Amino acid sequence: MASPKKGRRPSGGQGRPGRALALILIVLVALTGGMFLSGHTTPRLGIDLAGGTSITLTAKNQPGEKNAINETNMNTAVGIIERRVNGLGVSEAEVQTQGKENIIVNIPRGTNEKQAREQVGTTAQLFFRPVLAITPGGKTAEPSPSPSATDKAKGGQEKPGQGDQAKTSAKPSPSTTTQGRAVTDALKDDPSPKATPAGKATPTGKPEPSQPPVPEPQPGAGVPAGLQKKLDALDCSKPAARAQAGQGVKPTDTTVACSDDGKVKYALGPADVEGTDVSDAKAGFDNQRGSGWLVQLDFNDKGSKRFADSTGTLASQQPPRNQFAIVLDGQVVSAPSVSTSITGGNAEISGSFTQQTAEDLANVLSYGALPLTFEESSVTTVSAALGGEQLQAGLIAGAIGLALVVLYLVAYYRGLAFVAILSLLVSAILTYTIMTLLGPGIGFALNLPAVCGAIVAIGITADSFIVYFERIRDEIREGRSLRPAVERAWPRARRTILVADFVSFLAAAVLFAATVGKVQGFAFTLGLTTLLDVVVVFLFTKPLMTILARGKFFGGGHPWSGLDPKRLGVKPPLRSRRSRTPVVPTDPKEA
């Protein structure tokens, strides 16, 4: 028995279009539900629509330096600028690299533009300062002056709540004492850790053994009265206070500063070494001594002498005065202790570093001598009112474009316009929900060029429907009924749609990679909507047409269906005309 002839199954899943429609419905419900569960029901707006200031900084090599513009240095600069912006009390600020040489800083409305530009446009200031006192980061409630000589003469003693001794009674937690960087081995075993530094500075090649817990520091001993007053008034728990502490202070002056997490505050002496004296800093793993990750420092000739003198002085002091603070932009990023004078122009900062914390500290130290400067390429300030007007204008333009497309579809395709409008609606829901979720997900902000990209996408999406509809109509003109016409037209239309969308997506990808700033918003939106066009056509438009072709309205060629054979100029098949004219046989045998 001959096996039945095997034919290729029609593309598009003619027999199971309901599965594709169910899949797209599940995706719509999931995205919509995720949008409401996330608490974000509207897309995040960019600076040009919500109002604010956008600053573009371009990195420049300093004279005589080459290859300083690299990914590591740029990322370090981004982290420093981001901390500066956050120090202004700004919420939802964006600091990110674009391309290899640009940093974009987007600051929402409500921020002092002049102050913001001063913060992001200046080079980082790095200093090594001796530590005079350490206290918890909160504001001291009732600072009391130290006892006078007269009181001492009378035999009086300080009360527990007076003077600097009161500050030492509050024992900070481990996270308070480490500034978020690293914990010394000695502190790990101490149930009541004292205000000690994160790590130890040791000479290269000489390990620093674990030491027992140091005694509680006497933060007020020997601190000038004016500096002590500033230290007591400083509240490091407030970001604005952390940002302002130490700003505008000369390197030769004493100052106060906060740790980068705000849990510890310091009284600091004049700067002994500047960041420009550091020639190199890198993170490394010590396999020989088993001390784990550490940070290796190299100083230039001037810095080597200064660092040796400074560490020699610190090594003879009692805690916390045997520590030096590494101060970046007025904030202490680390405060290691010193046990001996470090000579030779290089040193190590050891402790319980992880690879990430060691690399972060090395990058900060390197940035103090980084041969990079930044110049403002552009500064754009948009008021909230102007941003609202632009958004309204963009939405009106989109509505007009959509209305014109719908009118054209109804006038030319009639019933098929119903399929196109539903497909556009599905595409719009997918685009809206995804853009909304990308805001908190990856920080995507809808700017005015992105709105233009969404408007352009209306035409691209409608073009895919038109290609498919015209293929179906061509099949009907050739004399086929609607159901086989829908399936035979799909492979040809599918190939055309994929090629067109690929070209559009490729253009969007090239534009996104080759541009910076707001133009990337246009490219991103164009690429996203192009991908969604493929999803909608494959999972919604084609299956819906397969189902509708089985109905009487479309399958019977109703005049308002858009697939009426008479309106399409279909002529009766040739064999039908021949059947009306009888053929007279000439051969008697044929008769």
How do the helices and strands line up, and which of them pair or pack?
Blueprint: H1 17-38, H2 47-50, E1 52-61, H3 71-87, E2 94-98, E3 102-108, H4 113-121, E4 126-136, H5 149-153, H6 165-168, H7 174-178, H8 185-188, E5 200-203, H9 225-233, H10 239-244, E6 255-259, E7 264-268, E8 273-274, E9 278-286, E10 292-299, H11 301-315, E11 324-328, E12 331-334, E13 337-338, E14 346-353, H12 355-367, E15 372-382, H13 384-413, H14 416-442, H15 448-477, H16 482-514, H17 519-548, H18 552-555, H19 574-579
Parallel strand pairs: 5-13, 6-12
Antiparallel strand pairs: 1-3, 1-15, 2-3, 4-7, 4-8, 4-11, 5-14, 6-7, 9-10, 10-14, 11-12
Fold and architecture overview:
The protein has 591 residues and is an alpha+beta fold. It folds into 3 domains: 17-45 and 383-555, Multidrug efflux transporter AcrB transmembrane domain (Multidrug efflux transporter AcrB transmembrane fold, Up-down Bundle); 51-121 and 375-380, Alpha-Beta Plaits; 126-150 and 157-354, no CATH class. It has 19 helices and 15 strands. It has helices spanning 17-38, 47-50, 71-87, 113-121, 149-153, 165-168, 174-178, 185-188, 225-233, 239-244, 301-315, 355-367, 384-413, 416-442, 448-477, 482-514, 519-548, 552-555, 574-579, and strands at 52-61, 94-98, 102-108, 126-136, 200-203, 255-259, 264-268, 273-274, 278-286, 292-299, 324-328, 331-334, 337-338, 346-353, 372-382. The chain has a 5-stranded mixed barrel. It has a 5-stranded mixed beta sheet with strand order 9-10-14-5-13. Strands 2-3-1-15 form a 4-stranded antiparallel beta sheet. Helix 13 packs antiparallel against helix 14. The longest helix is centred in the last third of the chain and has 33 residues, at 482-514. It starts with 16 loop residues before the first helix and ends in a 12-residue tail after the last helix. Residues 1-13, 146-199, 202-219 and 574-579 have low confidence and may be disordered.
